[in-house]
Amino acid sequence: MSTATTGIHHVTAISGDPQRNVDFYVGVLGLRLVKKTVNFDDPETYHLYYGDGAGSPGTIMTFFPWGNAPLGLQGTGQLTVTTFSVPADSLGYWTQRLIDSGIRFEKPEQRFDDTVLSFADPDGMRLEIIAASDEDREPWPSATVPAEHAVRGFHHVTLSERDPERTAKLMTEHLGFRSVIDGDGRYRFEAEDGGPGNLVDVVDGSSESRGRMGVATVHHVAFRATDDDHLQEIRSEVAGLGYNITPVLDRNYFHSIYFREPGGVLFEIATDPPGFAADEDPSELGTHLKLPPWLEKRRGQLEEVLPPLRVPTGGDV
């Protein structure tokens, strides 16, 4: 089996207040809250997953909302920008939506063949929307955003590196990415067939400060493995290079491994199955607090500690 990953699985970041996080990612961006669970290593903190209607790999943005954590510093050695994809003719809609939502954004710019709208979430984490010429994924009929303009998932992520060539070598020689285009200090790589959700940009961050983990920073990026056998193949490949790599971990909705790439960004490789319907009916994703079996005995205590969350509906925006 090939050790090539098959695109982006999810991105996990650190946020502040959980309700503010839900209000923005559901209420403004129109993503679905597909799973409300807890941080398995810190179960008195939520782990919130957003994505399309089914929680498809390549659409999943997740957060650890640590409201009392210090603000992080976005910089080199981190995933510094997460870019979402919308249809090519939807940029006008999103420009007006950000204005109506009171969100400041930068002047749209051209990047390779697409138009990019840059802004930040309420904590200050850097985001982008790309009006992608090749976006053909089906929309989720969100309650807050019309289907024809809905976010379809990730377009690409941006890694800031002091030595881009070392990261590029790992990605192309061992994780199955291909170099496709570069310009202005930005190098784009694609997995599998390319296109939105399968792209990673590496930029030269040698002039930036080193990033520091905290609120408004990305904790890790996960790439896709088709199944457990594929995950083990990738693990063997990476371990053979001398990386300090974790054992396979059970995250309930996927199995995964973690390691740091040469520039310091935490990489995860996660399986597509079993998916987010493993413990919840697809029609009810995100509506219940879901706990792994070993935490069920603490459900009463955790429900008292975790703040209630209200999920925005169309009338809230």
Secondary structure blueprint with pairings:
Layout: E1 8-15, H1 18-28, E2 32-39, E3 42-51, E4 60-65, E5 78-87, H2 91-100, E6 109-111, E7 114-120, E8 126-132, E9 153-161, H3 164-174, E10 178-183, E11 186-190, E12 199-204, E13 218-225, H4 228-239, E14 249-250, E15 254-260, E16 266-274, H5 299-305
Parallel strand pairs: 1-4, 5-8, 9-12, 13-16
Antiparallel strand pairs: 1-13, 2-3, 3-4, 5-9, 6-7, 7-8, 10-11, 11-12, 14-15, 15-16
- CATH fold category name: 2,3-Dihydroxybiphenyl 1,2-Dioxygenase, domain 1
Shape: globular
The assigned structural class equals: alpha+beta
The count of helical stretches stands at 5
User: Biggest β-sheet, characterized?
Assistant: 8 strands, mixed
From the alpha carbons, calculate the radius of gyration and give it in angstroms: 19 Å
Q: State the CATH class.
A: Alpha Beta
Give an account of the 3D structure:
The protein is α+β, with helices and mostly antiparallel strands and 317 residues long. It has one domain: 2,3-Dihydroxybiphenyl 1,2-Dioxygenase, domain 1 (Roll). It contains five helices and 16 strands. The strands form two sheets. Strands 2-3-4-1-13-16-15-14 form an eight-stranded mixed β-sheet. An eight-stranded mixed β-sheet has the order 6-7-8-5-9-12-11-10, covered by helices on one side. Strand 7 (114-120) and strand 8 (126-132) form a beta hairpin. The model has no long low-confidence stretch (mean pLDDT 95).
Quick structural overview:
The chain has helices at residues 18-28, 91-100, 164-174, 228-239, 299-305; strands spanning 8-15, 32-39, 42-51, 60-65, 78-87, 109-111, 114-120, 126-132, 153-161, 178-183, 186-190, 199-204, 218-225, 249-250, 254-260, 266-274. The protein has 317 residues and is an alpha+beta fold. The model has no long low-confidence stretch (mean pLDDT 95).
